[in-house]
Design a protein that fits this description.
The chain is an alpha+beta fold. It is about 40% helix and about 30% strand. It is elongated and about 40 Å long. About 15% of the residues are buried.
């Protein structure tokens, strides 16, 4: 691949992941009724934009469930570079 093509793929990938991060922030509640805690979610974004949870963990089962629900609520556009694995950490107040 030519250097210019690499830069354009990289820019498209960066833009896509930035949009995905914005969507996650929009779906994350400012305050969690379950109290303070942390969670981590690993997920697959399919080439069509579909999301499949791979794993979710948290400082309590409720925090893990909330992280899972946030990620499951996303509707991602098709990924420019095909399917990829992503992860997201959460801190709830």
């Amino acid at each position: 691949m030519e250097p210019a093509a690499n830069a354009s793929v990289s820019a498209a990938d960066h833009l896509y992941k930035s949009l995905l991060a914005q969507a996650i922030r929009r779906h994350t509640p400012r305050r969690a009724t379950i109290g303070r805690g942390d969670a981590f979610c690993k997920f697959l974004v399919g080439k069509s934009g579909g999301i499949t949870i791979i794993a979710a963990s948290g400082s309590s089962p409720a925090h893990a469930t909330l992280a899972r629900r946030i990620i499951e609520s996303l509707r991602a556009p098709p990924s420019p570079d095909g399917a990829f694995v992503a992860s997201q950490s959460f801190h709830f107040d």
